[in-house]
Design brief:
The protein is mainly α. The chain contains eight helices and no strands. It has two domains: 1-100, Orthogonal Bundle (Rna Polymerase Sigma Factor, Chain: A), CATH 1.10.1740.10; 102-189, Arc Repressor Mutant, subunit A, CATH 1.10.10.10. The chain has helices spanning 3-11, 15-37, 40-57, 67-88, 107-120, 124-135, 140-147, 151-171. The longest helix is centred in the first third of the chain and has 23 residues, at 15-37.
Length: 189
Amino acid sequence: MSDAALVRRCLAGDPAAARELVEQFQQDVYGLCARLLGHRQDAEDVAQEVFLRVFRSLRRWDAGRPLRPWVLGITVNRCRTALGRRAKGPELADYLHETADHRSGDDSAELTREIRGAVDGLRPDYQTVFVLFHEQGRSYEEIADVVARPVGTVKTWLHRARVEILDRLRSRGLVPDDPTNANTPAQPG
């Protein structure tokens, strides 16, 4: 079924269509929320907010454009709002268990933690495009639709995110400096 037909059914009050819309996007929405927010309960709450916002805003969706980038755009905006609320208040005690040291003898686990930490430390725009591209496999064009920026901006942000992550890994001694190339990784094409 086309996006437009599904939206028309939702707007007509068809409960099966509403369920179908949620089922179609819930994995992407929750996955993006979990990655950007870093906390399961926050991700669940924000994912619910996303679908409430989607259903309230369906009449404004442009039927000439794909539905997925529009839904993911709402997701990114809701995550930004949640992060802004979190930044204004003190960290809650239930986040403390997530900061516990979970060291293992496996170097790849340490590298994975460092990469996640580096991604989490990126500015929100860079983090969003990095997660959408590398973790969710979205195309440049789809990401551009989600973040409402030109493809060139998305590529630049992605490049800068990679450079910042690489710099952090180098500063932590996890990636050796490359003496043959003082430049940063090549900009994606």
